[in-house]
Amino acid sequence: MKTLTEEQIKERLEKLEYWDLEEGFLVTSLDFKDFADAFAMMTRIAFEAEALQHHPEWSNVYNNLTIRLNTHDADGITEKDFKLATRIEEIIKG
């Protein structure tokens, strides 16, 4: 899988509301009402990640969920990361 150039990444980021580029990862940090809502969102995202065979790095502390996307096999950001980021945004927006 081919990594995207910095210009391609920035162009695609303009189409995403919740994501930024940080240290070679697409990153988002989301706050929810409480732990249960954050965990429920993680569960929904997990099913999408599994369907796409692309699994995020993430952490959850109480109501906050931080997600980092990078295609480890390609050692960079690829279309696969943007596909999952887009799907996560669709889930968040309901």
From TrEMBL:
Keywords: Lyase
Top class in the EC scheme: lyase
Molecular functions per Gene Ontology: 4-alpha-hydroxytetrahydrobiopterin dehydratase activity
Catalytic activity: (4aS,6R)-4a-hydroxy-L-erythro-5,6,7,8-tetrahydrobiopterin = (6R)-L-erythro-6,7-dihydrobiopterin + H2O
Enzyme Commission designation: 4.2.1.96
Gene3D superfamilies in UniProt: Transcriptional coactivator/pterin dehydratase
Biological process annotations from GO: tetrahydrobiopterin biosynthetic process
One Pfam family cited in the UniProt record for this chain: Pterin_4a
Membrane-spanning intervals of the chain: none
Family, per entry: Belongs to the pterin-4-alpha-carbinolamine dehydratase family.
Protein name: Putative pterin-4-alpha-carbinolamine dehydratase
UniProt lineage: Bacteria, Pseudomonadati, Bacteroidota, Flavobacteriia, Flavobacteriales
